Amino acid sequence: MPHTLPVPLTSLATVKLQFKTWRKTRKQKSRIPDELWTAAVSLSDRYSIHCISKALHVNHTALRDRVSSYKTNKNQHTHSCFIELPPPQSPVFECLVEMENRFGDKMRMNFSGGVGLDLWALSQNFWEKRS
Question: Residue 121 falls within a domain, yes or no?
Fold first, then answer.
């Protein structure tokens, strides 16, 4: 059985017609051609093996084995690789704030990166209250 499937997607009805035509013209007791098996296997991504075997009147176990063999070969030929992407470039903020209130209390804040604090509220609280 070939390991590659035809590129165009065929429908179950199309493959069923191909099997019907082959059965009318085949020699008695001849094997199903590889092209028909390949077409039947190609349906396994969209239909269950039971549905395909019933519609095409083929042996369920034989179809299951061919689908399994195809998927194993397909997975062996699939290559995956890791591509490291650089982190997104975002602006880096650095900020140094030094405050001294009328009581002589001092506050120094050093921020780098994005700040999730409400700096205005923090500084207002510092100015208004005695520590």
Answer: yes
